[in-house]
Amino acid sequence: MTPSISQVNLIAGILRVLEEAGYPGLIPRQFNAVIAAADSIIEALATPERTVTPGMGLTAWQASDQTGLSSKYMAWVLTGSAHPSRRCDYPHDSDDFGRCLGLLAAVPEFRQSLHKMASCGQQWQALIGEWSVLEAMMEAGRHKEVLARIRDMTY
C-alpha cells in the first residue's frame, strides 16, 4: 500500500517551520506559494520513479529520474550541442559515475564517441583513461573503491 499524505497536514507543517524561522504571518501570495509547494510535493511523491532502461533513447533518458550534472554534460558534449554553462561537470563519486553509465546504457551509440570526453578537461581525461576499469568495478558492486579512484584522479 502506498502511503498518503494530507495536504492540510503538510501545509500546517510547512507553516510551523516558517513560523520557527521568523515568518509568523504570511500574505496571501506567500500562503499560495506554500499551497503550491505542498501540492508539488504530494504530486512528486505520487509519481513512480522513472528509471533508465537499456536503449530507451536520449529523450526518455532526459525525462528519467537518473540524470545528474555530469551525465547531462556528457549528453551535451556527445550530441555536439552547446552546453548552457562554461562549467565542465564531471563525475565526483560513484553515484555520478553510475548516472553516466546509465546514459551510455540508454543511448548505446554514445559509447563509440566516449573518447571525445577526454578533451573536456583534465578530470575527464583522467576518467576516460580509466573508464573501463571504473565500469568493471561498478558492475562488481565496488562503489566505495570507485569513489576512492575518482577522488584520486580528479582532486
Radius of gyration: 20 Å
> Which blocks of ≥5 consecutive residues have pLDDT under 50?
none
Outline the biggest β-sheet.
Answer: none
Total domains:
2
Order of helices and strands: HHHHHHHH
- As a percent range, the share of strand residues is under 5%
Instruction: State mean pLDDT (0 to 100 scale).
Output: 94
- Helix count equals 8
Number of strands: 0
Alpha-carbon distance between the two ends: 45 Å
Q: Helix share of residues?
A: 55-70%
Overall 3D shape = elongated
Main features:
single chain; 155 residues; 2 domains; 8 helices
Give a written overview of the molecule.
The chain is an all-alpha fold. The protein has two domains: about 5-45, no CATH class; about 60-155, no CATH class. The protein is built from eight helices and no strands. Helix 1 packs across helix 2 (about 30-45) and helix 4 packs parallel to helix 5. About 20% of the residues are buried.
SSE topology sketch:
Layout: H1 7-20, H2 28-46, H3 58-62, H4 69-79, H5 94-106, H6 122-129, H7 131-139, H8 143-154
Brief sketch in words of this structure:
This protein is mainly alpha-helical and 155 residues long.
